[in-house]
Amino acid sequence: MATPTPVLTALAIYEAGKKAYEAYQGIVAFVSLGSHTPTPEEEILARLEMLHQDFVALQGRFDEVLEAVKQAVRVEQQAYVLNLRRDLDGLRGRARTAMDELNAWVADGRKDPLMRSNADNNSRLAANTLLEGDSYFYRPDPNAPESVFDHRLAYIAYVYVLTVRFGVIAGLNPQYREDRLAREELTRHAARLDWVFEHADQAIEPHTGGGPDDRGSYILGYQCVDHITGYDTGHTQLGWRPGGQAEYDDARAYYSDELRADMRVRVGLAKLMAFRDTVGYWAKDPRTPGWSSWMPVEVPDTMTSETSLSAASDRPGRTVLVWWDKGKAQVRATSYDSTATAPAWSPTVTISADHAVRQGPMPRALASGPGLITVLMQDKGSAVYATRTDAGRPTGWLAEPVKVSGDSTDVSFLGAATTPGFVVVMWRDNGAGTLMAAFQDAKGAWGAPQVAAPADAVSLGSDLAVACPSPGAVMAIWTMNEQTVHSVTYDPRAATWSAPARIAEFPGSDFPARIYAVGTGDGKVDVVWQGKFGATWNIHYDGGWSAPAEITPRHLTKWGSLYTIVPAVTGDRRLNLFWQGRDSRVQTIYRDPQQSTWSAPSRLGQPWWSYSELAAVSTAPGSVSLYRMDYGSEIGEVPKLQTCFYDPATPTAPARIADAQALVTRAQTLWNLPGPAREEANARAADAIAVAREVVALDPGYRATLAQWLVFPAGAYLMSSGHHDEAIARMQEALGLFDKLIGEQPGSEDLRYRKAWTLVNLAQALWGKPDHPQGTQRAIEATDLLRQLATRKPTYRPGLAQWLVFPAGTYLMGSGRHDEAIARMREALGLFDKLIGEQPGSEDLRYRKAWALVNLAQALWGKPDHPQGAQRAIEATDLLRQLATGNPGRYRGGLGDWLMFPTIPYLRQSGRRDDALKRAREAVDIFTALNATDPAVYGPKLAAAKKLVADIQAELESG
User: Fold this and answer.
1) What is the pLDDT of residue 611?
2) Quick check: 332 and 325 in contact, CB under 8 A?
3) How far apart are CA 372 and CA 279, in angstroms?
């Protein structure tokens, strides 16, 4: 039997969104890990090539979408559809061209700035065309003059070109989230995807009908149609159900939500929502708190549709996941440490015997302190067992679980809770009718079972929850006869349990199937349950119990379905509740400490094809992570673990300074590329400074790092780009920081050296502005400060000698202050002579002496002291000639340059033309040899040297 066309086109849209979503997530995962092996461009290009091949493989399905859209219009309107397809193919082709250009740029060693720029421009143009062009998302209406929304063809193209655009952005700047313009661009695309979703969602029309009778029953029928794809679920008629008008209205609302959610998955809108959420989250300013999108977790194991997850964290950044494996009826575990050098999920391990553990109640993981995670489970013989982490064993867990429920042979495992230092597990002994408890201490040892409530205080059908309101204290809360709520309390000081007490009565017939309890560690406990009409109810303990109250609107959940409410408390004592709503989306509310009201419900991500239990864990202050299994859709996807997390946007100072360091590294990489990439380098350096300033506001201990980056690369790159005022501002900011630090640490030589280094860079920025007087003054201050340091620490002498020549001596000479320039250059010459005496084999020191001589020659000439100027120039070239004899590849070109200036001009103008001619011929010989290997550089120099020889010869002949 052939698959109906609406189903085929819906699957094509689904697949296009899925492949783009996977590629986008792959790029995000690579960039967020900060890996540089392979390089960002190479890894991202590989992801984009995979996307391209996936789309090529799906082309047959895309052609079916084209045919479906053609069939939706009149024959004379089909030319419009074909032209639309042609234009969209052109945009995909432009995006493909951007990929090819980026690939060619990388393959050519990143040398061609035009190729890099073209990749950026072509990817931007392709994506922005669909960002701005509404007409691409409409087709002619065969029955009306207006166009009708139909996103199918444009959506396929848009997710492709947008993913390519993101790949180019991230490839050219892996730290793009620190770039405001990149964030704004991606935010516009997230808004565009939301626009597409809203218009497409309006075409989904659920139908419900029926009504109540006068005998206390109602009947309901339902159907759902997507008017864009033509997908129709067909009509379904339910039998008569007990209830009146209120129950009928709730059932209609439930099926309307469920039908829409189901259709969103079938026609690919759920993938569009996931793609939108991904683009939106990764376009978010990292300083703005918010929920991430759902993303796949690469756990090294297979999880099935029967997987029951539980999660715990024993220290910041570490998550332990445990689950029941249906195939072997065992419990397995894996862990993830986000603080590791290379974060990855650990190999999974078995932490129970094979074919021994029940699926329900699902295993519970609890953390009671650093390095101690306990997992509780019930075996097939009904006994309660526990295992825990054990760093001394190869698996990291006990060799086998231990029985904690004593000799009882018929127990109902009801609940567990933890506070720092202990774990409590509670169960009903069905033989004796008593409520029992056992405690695990801080070392992981279990005590003997003890009675928490006498016989028949807890009935066989009771649902029980356990919570710890404060360290050492325990509350057990349970239902009785589906009408009342009771509790007992454990007092850690007296080591006794209170008598059972009734704490609440369910209002009317709004009693729950299950209750959930959680303590926030500050003496408070909350009990929650799902009400009859889809609301969440709550009673709160703070020295006494409150009356039951609805804390969410109605019609959020399906009454009667055992959908779990998962509580999670973050480090700031915010209490979060999570559940899967009747719209198949995860929903959440929270209440902050010291607050009596709950937040409005929020929906996290897209609807899911099927129900899955949630696991929640807080691994950092203010943050909470969720995990669930995604069983795909009707096209038979492999189940995959998914996660999302609340980002409180409060990263630690070390984490943010690492982000800034990555930006600095990127700026340096860009600076070393040819062409316009240098302005990008300035932008990345500015991003690094912005992040470093944030860090300093949190932790002043990073002020020296900020000051250093203000000078280099930020100030130095701005200066070299001609942005002198900005460079000066940054260097002056750095100078102020170093002055404050020196005031706090007056004995720090390193800080005083960094101040001198800042002054010498500031001198160059001021000179280039040009502000020659201030530039000269700062250079003098730099050398004065470094001279003080060199007096106490001779290792500073080489730097002092260099700065005395440049910039101090050079700027004094340029300002006409020749005597001061000469004095500093002679001081430098004396330092180099001493250093050469200490290190006679140092080629570098001999070169620096020659360099000081050639600069001194120019200062003397300008004084004017021409004889001494010419003599120093001769000495400089004589010394460099010796070096060039031993290392011609390094020094021969420089010798030729110094012969051409200042040596030959000074000799010629001093009347020593024979000496000048001899050196001019030497320059010709040098440049002739060098021209043979690099004519572009040395050809003009050779021509100038030959002309100089001819000119001097002419002067000699005429004179």
Assistant:
1) 80
2) yes
3) 38
Between 5-33 and 59-71, two packed helices, what is the crossing angle to 10 degrees?
130
DSSP 357: B
What is the 3 state secondary structure string of 132-186? HCHHHHEEECCCCCCEEECCHHHHHHHHHHHHHHHHHHHHHCCCHHHCHHHHHHH
Residue 509: count other Cβ atoms within 10 Å of its Cβ: 9
Which is nearest to 438 in space by CA: 424, 452, 427? Answer: 424
Q: Among candidates 546, 535, 549, 619, which has minimal Cα distance to 579?
A: 535
Q: pLDDT digit string (tens) for 307-336?
A: 678 999 999 889 999 988 888 888 999 999
Asked if 789 and 749 count as a contact pair (C-beta separation under 8 A), the reply is yes
User: Cα separation of 75 and 111, whole Å?
Assistant: 52
Q: What is the pLDDT of residues 425-448, one digit of tens each?
A: 999 999 899 999 999 999 999 999
Contact assessment for residue 683 and residue 179, using Cβ atoms and an 8 Å cutoff:
yes
Tokens coding 403: 């029985």
* Close Cβ partners of 126 (under 8 Å, ≥ 6 residues apart): 91, 92, 94, 95, 98, 161, 164, 165
The C-alpha atoms of residue 562 and residue 585 are separated, in whole angstroms, by 16
Amino acid present at 41: E
Asked if the model's pLDDT at residue 560 lies above 60, the reply is no
pLDDT, tens digit (0-9, with 9 covering 90-100), for 729-773: 999 999 999 999 999 999 999 999 999 999 999 999 999 999 999
With 0-12 CB in 10 A as exposed, 13-18 as middle and 19+ as buried, what is 882?
Answer: middle
Whether the Cβ atoms of residue 627 and residue 615 lie closer than 8 Å to each other: yes
Q: Maximum CA pair distance of the chain?
A: 133
H-type alpha helices, 423-571: none
Rounded Cα distance, 609 and 564, in Å? 17
**Structure token pair of residue 84:** 């639309």
Angle between helix 843-862 and helix 866-886 axes, rounded to 10 deg:
160
**Cis peptide bond upstream of 174, omega within 30:** no
Q: What is the pTM of this model?
A: 0.84
CB contact at 8 A, 537 and 552: no
CA distances for 705 relative to 699, 726, 892, angstroms: 11, 19, 40
Is residue 514 helix, strand or coil?
coil
Instruction: Classify the phi-psi angles of 674: left when phi > 0, otherwise alpha if psi is within -120 to 50, otherwise beta.
Output: beta
